[in-house]
Amino acid sequence: MAEPLDSAAIDQLFDKARTNNKWQPREVPDALLRQLVDHMKWAPTSANCSPARFVFVKSPEAKARLKPHLSAGNVDKTMAAPVTAIIGYDLNFYEALPKLYPPADAKSWFTGKKQHADTTAFRNGSLQGGYFILAARALGLDCGPMSGFQNAGVDAEFFTGTEIKSNFLCNLGYGDPAGVYPRSPRFSFDEIATII
Question: Is 22 exposed, middle or buried (0-12, 13-18, 19+ CB in 10 A)?
Fold first, then answer.
């Protein structure tokens, strides 16, 4: 049976974790990025559909391809980040369901049902994006998730010839505390939740 994480782990994942905007000049090894994906992939999606797809933008050449599609306020911090992950989702995710969900003919649940398939891909891909951030934090990486970019441009640049669409970007590395903004307020339990 699972035991609660200690307070230091909760702080690292949630209570004291922050969005980072400045980065230390420290490399993020490819092996750590592989480990990140290998951890987050175990978190649940409906019928194990696993539609998320990831492109880790690290090289100067890849950063140059991404730069024109960023909102002005996101350019400097993204170019300075050791890694920028493009978190996408595959609209054709259901083609892999015979492998990923062998107990049933789950592929037939989505074949020819584009709206249902697209909604499932976006919902579960977004879930996996959240898992991605938690896995990165668990491995000691700082995150700077953002949505300030041109999806169509990123899709044309990085996902041409596929049915993968970009969802959001996430800078990864080791944050410089000088780039952390004052923490914004959050809702209280009673403002957003009810127990019935």
Answer: middle
Judge contact between 60 and 99, C-beta under 8 A: no
CB within 8 Å of 40: residues ≥ 6 apart: 128, 131, 132, 134, 135
Q: In angstroms, what CA-CA distances link 53 with 92, 114, 168?
A: 11, 19, 11
Strand partners, 56: 85
How does the average pLDDT of the chain come out, rounded?
98
The contacts of residue 97 (CB under 8 Å, 6+ apart) are: 47, 48, 49, 106, 107, 110
What is the domain partition of the chain in residue ranges? 19-173
Would you say 14 and 162 are in contact if contact means Cβ atoms under 8 Å apart? no
Tens-place pLDDT, residues 123-144: 999 999 999 999 999 999 999 9
**Helix (H) and strand (E) counts for the chain?**
8, 4
Query: Any idea which architecture 19-173 has in CATH?
Result: 3-Layer(aba) Sandwich (3.40)
Rounded Cα–Cα distance for residues 25 and 16 (Å) = 22
